[in-house]
Structures are given as C-alpha cells and as structure tokens.
Design brief:
Blueprint: E1 4-9, H1 17-34, E2 41-46, H2 61-67
Parallel strand pairs: 1-2
Helix pairs in contact: 1-2
C-alpha cells in the first residue's frame, strides 16, 4: 500500500490566521488528486493553529485540514 506523509510548517501568530487558512486550502488542493490513489495520508508538523482538535470552527485552518473542505 502507498502512504503519503505531508510535513507542514504553517505561518505562526494569531494575527496570521487568514494566511494559515490559505495555506491549508493549498495543501487540500495538492492532496485532492493524491487521495484518489490512497486514503493513507498523514499530515503532521508545526501547524501553529490557535484551535484545539475536537473544538474546530468552520473555515479555520485546522478545520480545513481535518475535514477536507476547501471552500
């Protein structure tokens, strides 16, 4: 089986949330085609998010990465 590992370092600081959202959308775009070949995808690294997994706000950087929603 194929495994895709993506290591990220998203922009830091709370005031850079909009840029992190753009970065997350770009990553989702890259992974869209790759995910057709395998569902074994690991995303890790320094996401610099201001959110806690399990308490995500729609449209946030972490929500975009975890949900697969890029709109």
């Amino acid at each position: 089986e194929e495994l895709i590992v993506v290591v990220l370092h998203l922009r830091a600081r709370p005031e850079e949330a909009e840029l992190r959202q753009k970065q997350a959308k770009l990553v989702r775009h890259w992974l869209k085609d790759l995910s057709r070949h395998t569902s074994n995808i690991i995303i890790m690294g320094d996401l610099n998010t201001e959110e806690i997994a399990g308490d995500l706000h729609a449209g946030s950087d972490l929500h975009l990465l975890m949900s697969g929603t890029s709109d």
